[in-house]
């Protein structure tokens, strides 16, 4: 795993082999952050990383100046690894061991970006519930963004605040945000920006 941009650009992080994870690939991660670069200035964004795994996405946000970051995972080994890595790099990441659904039910904090990377074998209902809990509990800032990573077998476009999706290999990023008034210079998802997209 490598950090692709920001303060720690090029740094490689060696993860234990026994963690039950499927990290977002470097290609997909780079494509995702190319998209986000057009919409956000990362400094001091409040980030929630759900099903955080190795912390791959959290480290990338932190390297670009986002803080604070909350990383949630149910696996004890993953949470300990994130804590250790965050301490090593002096990153403002709080790792929490919790069932993601229970965390979302209890949380009262609003975030600028929420990223969720559930296991690809989750049912459609399990994916939908992530979305429902986030919007029902109003966990996104008004101009915030929810990103859910999923396989091509899972469909997300039926949900109310679905904005767009991008496919990279066998992975899809689906984007959700509250409806905003359109302006002539506001085109967050311009197809010209995605030359690296795989068909």
From TrEMBL:
Domain of life: Bacteria
Keywords: Methyltransferase, Transferase
Gene Ontology BP terms: rRNA methylation
Keyword Methyltransferase in record: yes
Region named Disordered: 180-199
MF (Gene Ontology): methyltransferase activity; nucleic acid binding
Database matches in Pfam families: Cons_hypoth95 (PF03602)
Record-given protein name: 16S rRNA (Guanine(966)-N(2))-methyltransferase RsmD
Origin species: Paenimyroides marinum
């Amino acid at each position: 795993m490598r950090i692709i941009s920001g303060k720690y650009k090029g740094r490689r992080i060696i993860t234990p082999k026994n963690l039950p994870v499927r990290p977002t690939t470097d290609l997909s991660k780079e494509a995702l952050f190319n998209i986000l670069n057009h919409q956000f200035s990362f400094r001091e964004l409040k980030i929630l990383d759900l099903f955080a795994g190795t912390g791959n996405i959290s480290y990338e946000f932190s390297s670009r100046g986002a803080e604070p970051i909350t990383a949630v995972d149910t696996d004890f080994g993953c949470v300990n690894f994130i804590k250790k890595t965050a301490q090593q790099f002096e990153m403002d990441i709080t790792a929490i061991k919790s069932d993601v659904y229970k965390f979302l039910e209890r949380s009262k904090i609003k975030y600028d970006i929420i990223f969720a990377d559930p296991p690809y074998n989750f049912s459609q209902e399990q994916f939908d519930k992530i979305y429902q809990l986030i919007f029902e509990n109003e966990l996104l800032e008004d101009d915030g963004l929810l990103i859910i990573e999923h396989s091509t077998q899972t469909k997300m476009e039926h949900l109310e605040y679905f904005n767009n999706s991008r496919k990279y290999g066998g992975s899809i990023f689906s984007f959700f945000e509250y409806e905003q008034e359109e302006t002539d210079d506001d085109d967050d998802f311009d197809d010209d920006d995605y030359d690296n997209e795989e068909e």
